[in-house]
Amino acid sequence: MEKRGREYRGHVxxxxxxxxxxxNPLLQMAKRLASKxxxxxxxxxxxxxxxxxxxxxxxxxxxxxxDQSGFAQxxxxxxxxxxxxxxxxxxxxxxxxxxENSTSPVNCVIYDSFLPWALDVAxxxxxxxxxxxxxxxTVCSIFCRIHQGQLTLPVKLEETPLLIPGxxxxxxxxxxxFLKAPEAYPAYLRMKLxxxxxxxxxxxxxxxxxxxxxCEVAKGVSELWPGMxxxxxxxxxxxxxxIEDDRGYGASLWKPLSNECMKWLETQEPESVxxxxxxSMVALTVKQMEEIAWGLKGSEFHFxxxxxxxxxxxxxxxFADSTKEKGLVVTWCNQLEVLAHHAVGCxxxxxxxxxxxxxxxxxxxxxxxxxxxxQLTNAKxxxxxxxxxxxxxEDEKGNVGREELQLCLRKVxxxxxxxxxKRNASQWRELAKEAISEGGSSDKNIDDFVGHLLGGKEIxxxxxxxx
Length: 467
Ligand code: UDP
Hints:
GO terms for molecular function: quercetin 3-O-glucosyltransferase activity; quercetin 7-O-glucosyltransferase activity. It holds the Pfam family Glyco_transf_N. Belongs to the UDP-glycosyltransferase family. Its EC number is 2.4.1.-. Residues 12-51 form the Glycosyltransferase N-terminal domain. The chain is an alpha/beta fold. The chain folds into two domains: 11-249 and 437-453, 3-Layer(aba) Sandwich (Rossmann fold); 258-430, Rossmann fold. It contains 17 helices and 15 strands. It has helices at 20-35, 46-49, 77-98, 117-124, 137-147, 177-180, 186-194, 215-224, 258-266, 286-298, 319-322, 335-339, 353-361, 375-385, 402-413, 418-436, 441-455, and strands at 2-3, 6-7, 11-15, 39-45, 58-62, 108-112, 128-133, 204-207, 227-229, 273-277, 302-306, 327-330, 344-349, 366-368, 389-391. The strands form three sheets. It has a seven-stranded parallel β-sheet. A six-stranded parallel β-sheet has the order 12-11-10-13-14-15, sandwiched between helices. The protein is globular and about 65 Å long. The two termini are 13 Å apart. Residues 20-21, 24, 277, 279-281, 306, 332-336, 352-355, 358 line the site of uridine-5'-diphosphate.
């Protein structure tokens, strides 16, 4: 298409919050859009840019004000977020300007919903802005209710659960932790609520979930915004296989010990291994670490456990040596590769939204051990809405004990309910694949989005500026 006398195709700049659980789905979105004919550029901080290695997507640095070591360099969340807003706005604007006289000027910024200032930058440049939510539709809907004043903080649901059409009744236990103890996480809570501060100005609201997964809830959310569900954002090889060589996200803040994991998994029986990971952010208490360690050791199952370098000191002394025969402990792995391996029979997960979508998309039954944030709500869905696993019960100090862990492992691996859980897990895998495959609900939404960016169409009667 010709525009302003130049060869023109839509060009999106994709801006994630610079942590693993946000870079993964946004980078995946960039790859998906590039595979459909858009030019895509990932804009990420100086500190994280060196961790990205991906084909068909441009990668450009912006600054969060802490170019040496990112968040770790800031005094606290408050300082970090403020600096990111100021320096990020300026450097994102410079990046958009850099392409202005090129053959492919930027016509849309897809920004992490944590960074709503990016929409202001897009609008200053007269281009589209699309907010990308990395949580479930249910969690977005809960925070939106707070923003709109329908729910007050701290959330108290001791007597009546929160009823959201399409979701199981949500009790106090199932609510995101930021809402139960708002004073404990002021900066994060403000950031979560800020996602909605200028959302009505956003041209699209993209959600990393899919219609079949959160059907009714998703409908409710799209009544509030021009919402589009485009997930699951997982490398194509594990779902539709339409993007060539797309086997990993393409960003890793830690070095995955892939060969070691694959070699070890090859020696294991089909569906015999318990894979354990608490994602990139959770820090367990020493007690919780011990309970998991002794729970795994005492169970009859073999296990692969990701214990990040920063958590190693909490492992009971001699644990790795005393479990050499049945377990492997690594500091980081390629989680998708592990989940896709036929030896893995169960995923003990903190229920971060990416891990939840990954387990579901690969059809792996789960034991949820949620610790904070939206993990608690996701675990509820794993157990009650989708029936693809169980949620482990915590004791009064918030720890999951060794016996409870073993009980959950037995339920999922071999108990009465395990057959049903496995059946549900395979069905959800098929639905996830369908959603992102040609003509699926998410695929159609992505095509629609791409169509607008390539053709500059109207969105539901609104003529959008700048394109
Ligand atoms: N992950 C990984 N290797 C690991 C553990 C996690 O690649 O050893 C990836 C995982 O595939 C997921 C992301 O890290 O995409 C974690 O995101 P999630 O939302 O599950 O949790 P968070 O880290 O944000 O708490």
